[in-house]
Amino acid sequence: MRLYSLFISAPPSMIISSAFGWFAGIRGINSFFWRLFAGLLAVIVLSSFLGFGVHTYLNRDEARYGKVDVFVGGRKAVQAALIIYQLKGQDALVEWLKSPGNVLPTVYIVDDHGSEISGRTAPELALRSIEENSIPEVEDHVLKNYPLNAVEDIEINGRPYTAFAVFEHSNHDLPFFNPFGTGIPIYVLFLVALILTAFVSAILAYYYTRPLRKLDGAMRAFAEGKLDTRVENSIGRADAEVAALAGIFDKMAGQISRLINRQRRLFHDVSHELRSPLARIDVALDIARRDADRVGPSLDRIEREVDELDRLVGSLLAYARYEQGAGMPLTPGSISAVTAEVVENTAFEAQKKNVSVVLEDELPSKFVLPINADALRSAMENILRNGLRQTPAGSRLSVTLTATSRFVRISLCDQGPGMPPEEIEHAFDPFVRGSHEQTGTGFGLGLAIAQRAVQAHFGRIEARNLPTGGFEVRIDLPRTEAVR
């Protein structure tokens, strides 16, 4: 009651300004949650006011004001007055007629001279229509058979009276009185409705922004270094648009995570590869300091280790260059010529192991493609050198060139032990050596460099074990230029 009294006594402008002042003072007012909340609240409130206004306008029927109410509401109000008189007498009836509850419609009880029993003044239009017996007929078939009358003749303390109801505005002194007959100021009802609307809007805003908050939390966690953060499964498929965005985030996070982990592994492997020759150089220097007779062999050892470091740095530079796609202009060139040169060089190196290198070129003559000859040569040389290390003495390496309507295939095969199936998936990762590595002289960068070089040609590279034994690497380059 104290709260109700406060609402009654406080001006509406003060209440509304206080509410907006509180709302504007909330932190994060520019957040999506509060903007959505304000939008939902505004839509609901405006829709309510619009609906109330339209309803009031369509039902204003000003011609009804001051006339006898012949509808159900008026008839019930007249019967209510009669019941009060029958149960409680004239004094109670007069008190009720004067009370705020006697409204919409308002009941009047007049004598033969038009004087109202409670001292009020009855509307002239209603009195005239009763006197002239000109009360309009009701066309509604339900009301025609309704058991209650719009105008009732009654006797109070031996005097005849006529009871009727009139649809008119209330004239009591409650501020901003509402049209629902509850006696509560209309702005209090609006304020209660506003609070309920705000509550519903807050729930809806919270529900609709929940997947976005989850996505925001995942992005923040990922930014803090939690690379295994994923969010799509926690959002679900109910919010299709946000779920699609979460799927894109998970895909991006996975790619970045793989990239960072690959870089970390690369740094670790580079450190490991550098440590071994540096340790051997340190041992050679120590031996040279202690034993003058072994200075020469120690210097030879140092020279070999420096050459190995130089090859490692060169391989790393090539890998980084192909990884970034830098310095890779493609110009029309002959794949047959580049392949023949690589086979010739590899055959020269293979003489030490008595390994033959065979080229089978099935491409048409003068067949050209946009290529980078150096990158393609480097890719094939790395693959063949890996094969040469794996291939036993007295066997052979084979290179085959074929063409289809869509691509050119370069097939490079050795007769070594191949790779375990579980290792083939990672064959093109940097610093990966197969478990069948025999000599241990490679850095594990050959196939990685070959893959980056092929990708720079917009091609693909695959590795597999041959059914008859051995290992095959296939390079497919897109055929974008016709045979000449």
Textual characterization of the structure:
The protein is α+β, with helices and mostly antiparallel strands. It folds into three domains: 67-169, 2-Layer Sandwich (Beta-Lactamase); 227-324, Signal transduction histidine kinase, dimerisation/phosphotransfer (DHp) domain (Helix Hairpins); 329-478, Histidine kinase-like ATPase, C-terminal domain (Heat Shock Protein 90, 2-Layer Sandwich). Helices cover 53% and strands 13% of the residues. It is built from 15 helices and ten strands. The chain has helices spanning 2-9, 12-24, 32-58, 72-88, 90-98, 124-131, 141-144, 186-223, 232-235, 240-290, 295-324, 335-350, 373-390, 421-424, 446-456; strands at residues 106-110, 151-156, 159-166, 331-334, 356-361, 368-371, 396-403, 407-414, 460-465, 471-478. It has a five-stranded mixed beta sheet, with helices on one face. The chain has a three-stranded antiparallel beta sheet with strand order 1-3-2. A hairpin with a 2-residue loop joins strand 2 (151-156) and strand 3. Residues 269-481 form the Histidine kinase domain. GO terms for molecular function: ATP binding; phosphorelay sensor kinase activity. This is histidine kinase. It is found in: Cell membrane.
